[in-house]
Amino acid sequence: MADLAVKPDPTETRLAALDMPSCGAWGRAVREAALARLRAMGRATNIGNIPAPTR
Amino acid sequence: MVPAAVFQNDEEPPFEGLNRLKLVFVDGVFDAGASDDLAETGLEIERLETAMAQDIHWAKDLYGALETNGQTPVARPLAALNSAYASDGIVLRVTAPVARPISLIYRHENPTSDAILHHVIKVETGASVTVLENGPAAARLNKVMEVDVADGAAFHHVRAQGRDHQRRAATHIFARLGTESRFKSFTMTVNGVLTRNECVIELLGDDAQAHVAGAALGDGEFHHDDTVFITHDAVNCESRQVFKKVLRNGATGVFQGKILVKPGAQKTDGYQISQSLLLDDDSNFLAKPELEIYADDVACSHGSTSGAIDEEALFYLRSRGVPMADAQDLLVLAFLAEAVDEIEDEELRAHVSTRLSGWLERHRS
């Protein structure tokens, strides 16, 4: 029987593991915008294959 | 996690002895104690986190902006990742000609460290600055530098990558050039398992000039990629791309260079050369030079070659009493000279040449 369970997206999992530095209003906005660009590029970028950082 | 040991030898770090303003990063984190005082005439220097904590800051309009422009027509996901997650970096505003170079020194203490660095540099009208970069930043480095060169301004950049043989690095330079501005960047790469240096430049003002050059020496497990995208969007601009790679023992070199001349960018002068010297049959050089031209009064050229050391030149030198190893090194240095000559400053050029000859001497087979 096929596994119909929704699996976590590896890209999202890896991105969630990264720690976005805290910053003020405009800093937060430009970082969020960059993250949105990254997501828009598509999961095809396969960022999920990059291991989580050590720090 | 793959550790990356720092390559050990008795050679002193690059640019040692130069009068320069030192900014030190250890494992991707700024080390104020090891750095010089940031007060310098003609310069405003801040850490990225300090700038981002403020409500109003000149870097607001620049951070991530040039990177965003550089995402079309080719997506650069690692640069977007960098803008989102950069942990440290400097924001540098140059308001007048700066007498001594700004030296970004990267040190590496943790063998499995990751670093995401983002620098923002704004060179105001009529100002000029030289930025030096050297040192093993981290086991895995993702670095972005955004450079805005205003009208009549000049930005010089000399970078030495090496000493960390197991390095994996992805670097991006995004630059925007105003009228009669000058941008010159040179990168020397030795060692490194995987290095990709991308340079995306937009010439937006008339009579602007952009020169990008690189010299790479690879031995064994070495993959080195230079990717350059230069867009001409103004009249009478000049761009030069000069890349030379010397490869052996299965090393791989890649060059992807593009000149895009937009409609109306008349009188463009674009030059692009990528050459490799393959010292054995196992090494590879992969080149993809591209020209895309939508203006009808331009001079654009590109060339790409791969070859071995000229046996006749080698014989000539040996017949004059030069030992085989010295003769080979001489010919390799002569091959790299066109790229090294792109460095304007004579003292910096001498530093780079010394590093290249030192590497060749240590890697004689």
Structure description:
The complex is a heterodimer of chains A (55) and B (365). Chain A has 55 residues and is mostly helical. Chain A is built from two helices and no strands. Chain A has helices spanning 10-17, 25-40. The model of chain A has no long low-confidence stretch (mean pLDDT 73). With 365 residues, chain B is α/β, with parallel strands linked by helices. Chain B contains six helices and 19 strands. In chain B, strands 2-1-5-7-9-11-13-15-17-19 form a ten-stranded mixed sheet, covered by helices on one side. Chain B has a nine-stranded mixed sheet with strand order 3-4-6-8-10-12-14-16-18. Chain B is globular and about 65 Å long. Chains A and B meet through helix 2 of A and helix 1 and helix 3 of B.
Total tally of structural domains of chain B = 1
Helix content of chain B: 10-25%
Structural class of chain B: alpha/beta
Q: Helix content range of the residues of chain A, please?
A: 40-55%
Count helical runs of chain B: 6
Q: Could you tell me how far the N terminus lies from the C terminus of chain A, measured between alpha carbons in angstroms?
A: 41 Å
* Distance linking N and C termini of chain B: 31 Å
Strand content of chain A: under 5%
Give the quaternary arrangement of the chains: heterodimer
| Sheet having the most strands of chain A | none
Q: Using the CA coordinates, give the radius of gyration of chain A.
A: 14 Å
Structure at a glance:
The complex is a heterodimer of chains A (55) and B (365). Chain A is mainly alpha-helical. Helices cover 44% and strands 0% of the residues of chain A.
What topology emerges from the helices and strands here?
The complex is a heterodimer of chains A (55) and B (365).
Chain A: H1 10-17, H2 25-40
Chain B: E1 21-26, E2 29-30, E3 43-47, H1 48-53, H2 65-69, H3 77-85, E4 90-94, E5 102-107, E6 114-123, E7 128-134, E8 140-149, E9 154-161, E10 168-177, E11 182-190, E12 194-203, E13 209-219, E14 223-232, E15 238-248, E16 252-261, E17 269-278, E18 284-293, E19 299-307, H4 311-319, H5 324-340, H6 346-362
Parallel strand pairs in B: 1-5, 4-6, 5-7, 6-8, 7-9, 8-10, 9-11, 10-12, 11-13, 12-14, 13-15, 14-16, 15-17, 16-18, 17-19
Antiparallel strand pairs in B: 1-2, 3-4
Helix pairs in contact in B: 4-5, 5-6
